[in-house]
Amino acid sequence: MKTLKQIVLLAAVVLMASAFTNSTDNPGYDIGDVATDFKLKNIDGKMVSMANYTDAKGFIVIFTCNTCPYAVKYEDRIIELDKKYADKGYPVIAIMPNDTEIKPGDSFENMQKRAKAKGFTFPYLIDEGQEIYPQYGATKTPHVYLLEKSKQGNVVRYIGAIDDNYQDAAAVKVKYVENAVDALLAGKEVPETKTRAIGCSIKVK
Question: How many domains does the chain have?
Answer without folding.
Answer: 1
